[in-house]
Protein: Gamma-secretase activating protein
Amino acid sequence: MALRLAADFDLRKDVLPGLRAAAGARGGGAGILENNYESLRVLNVERNGNIIYTYKDDKGNVFFGLFDCHTRQNEHLYTFEKDLQVVSCSVNRERTLLAASLVQSTKEGRRNELQPGSKCLTLLVEIHPVNNVKVLKAVDSYIWVQFLHPHVESNPLPENHLLLISEEKYIEQFHIQVIQEDGNGVVIKNSGHLPRERVAEDFVWAQWDMSEQRLYYVELKKSRSILKCIQFYADENFNLMFEAPLDIALSDSGFNLVNFGCTDLQDQEKLSEHPTLCVFTNHTGSLCVCYSPKLDSWEQITYSVFYFHKGHSKTFTAALGSADSRVTKGITFLNLDYFVAVYLPGHFFHLLNIQHPDLVCHSLFLTGNNEVVDMLPHGPLQSLSGSLVLDWCSGRLYRADLNRSYLLEFLWDARLDWEKMAVLHCVLSCRQDTRFLEAKIIQWISENISACHSFDLIQEFIIASSYWSIYPETGNMDKLLPYSSVLTWNTEIPGITLVTEEIALPLMRVHSFKGYWEKLHSNLEYVKYSEPHSHYSNSVVRREWHSLISEEKTGKRRSMAYVRNILDNAIKVISKLEARRLEPRLTPLFQEEDNHQRLLVGLMVSELKDHLLRHLPGIEKKRIEQMVLDYISKQLDLICQILEASWRRHNLHPWIFHFNRRASAAEFAVFHIMTRILEATHSLFLPLPPGFHTLHTVLGVRCLPLHNLLHYIDNGVLLLTETAVTRLMKDLDNTEKSEKLKFSIIVRLPPFEVHSKITWKICTLRVHPVSSNIISRNHVKRLLQDYKKQPRSSVIDKSSYSVEFLPLNYFTGILTDIESSSQALNAFEGHDNVDAKFVEEAALKHTTVLLGL
Structure:
């Protein structure tokens, strides 16, 4: 299944054996609990992960126990020697105080022995050692209790703080001072008068965040739902952090609590008849409110997610199939850090991307046709902080995360483009063992390179994987770096429809922010004042790179310091890339300078660094530079990984650089992969590893017929690098076919007037007639460009010419006269043997070839 639930705690395995053993040690036998097994249940999960549970013995006495998640040991806390029903329970951090809310068991003929006239008692008990019991409340309405667990160094705390949540729709905070007596014994100071204050009132819904010590609650004002949040601190202070309007329908007569422990007062089977509401946050400053109204149709279900950190909401309507598929369970929302899972047992499983919710293709939707929707527990699941999930019915506490194995398997089986897109992003968000995940994805891409029609697999992989490699550095990267190569998605997802609406942003009630609140505030400010193009793109790099290449062709160049700085940036990236390498490289890359690609890499470093410095003023320059080097080297590394995987898969060897044998089917396959890589990087203007173009061109020469090869060259798919052309000139023989290929290549080199280093070097080799022909043409062109015709003698001295061919003899004489003049310029300075005689020999050779002599 897409979601993996690893059990952190199991009531039957972690508690029950110990209770049986303890009962046997007391001589009562295991039967003390056997007849009351159903009474064993979880009551609460505290911030430190400790779990409070309760059970009854055969006399009806109520026992409270605690399971320490660190030591994996059980501890008995307290026993009420009365037959009571537990509503709620909480223990302070030091385990010296226990708060419990209880109601009298309703058995005919029994009167309330604890407090006559009251339905519910809220008690505060000293349990270290067991001592006094104080009644905090004795009322006719139910009460829930929760100790605050602040993060502080001092131990023990001099004062404890306890929340009381009343069914009468108010929340109070009690301040409990404790003192030590008789060594380590702890008693309540001034227990007759405990200070208290009203925290909230007139609410219809409340949720406790145990990890962050936050209270969320909803008030109704003029029939409008207002979400509020209170942050509790280590001292007795607390702040109202924000208010946010919610476009949801809640009844003033209703009352619902989330994460305030478990109670059996509600019929869990009727959850589908009530609205579901919960709030999820994560460390990046996200704030999501998930809501599902009361089910009013057996054919479809509606749920909404308010992405306050993005400024919009999405309302989804999912089909439930036939009317016979009756919904008996409530919808479940689970917090999975970067995702929110929406689960309706037997019907669908929707994995929502909360960091990038704009496009529906970035979220995974599985319907009843997929077996996954029946593989999760069918009982009510409660999402706690830190991706913890509690199954109240079974008493199991799970740690939930994405199942990489299932997702990779699903990726191979996916048929629809949106499924491939969604699963690809889900897999890449799993940051453990990224090298393994990337290798599996590359294998999948290699075998499905043409399987997607809505997006480019290689593009999406490079953009998404490089994004996730740097995203943990700072939460603002989702606004500054591209997450996907796809900007729009108009294809419908079968089985679900959605409506997107703008929503009012939360109104922050404080002016000083730290931690999560600083990030949330930053997200909200970004929604308010975001620049239209804050995501980085290579458009500026594209213009600057083309400008530098153009200047190189015309012989002009920026200051040497500017160019040297750019090339130094490239050296840093390549050094970092080489440091990533864990084994020898199979592909013949990085064996040449390839200044054009190095310029592109260096420019990207410069532009991306400026972009991040502009938008991340609070991060030091050195750290940003490191992030940029990591990001760009990651992109190059991914390309190298794709090539390495293809090379290894087809068992190619470095001799691929030679031209003395025909291309194999494996070489055709690698050439195709390289062409797809080139297409993917070209539109995004991403850099390629130095040597890529040389290798691609060499493979092209080996794999393509001449007319196709020249077509690829003329359209810029294959680039004539100095290394590739030099090797071609040296390795090819002088047969007619090879000469034709060499001439076709050389005539496509830049002309001498464009200051082309490659043309100069190739032609000055002069090891082939083709080179001689090109050199002769350019030598003659240079000599004759300023030539002014002068009277010449009509008599030609035939003794000075090796061939009696008057037109050639006359032309050679003109060239000799020009060369002998003081204004003559040798087109190849330093090569004195390039003269009229050389031109004559080249012309004769060329004519002989044309005539087939």
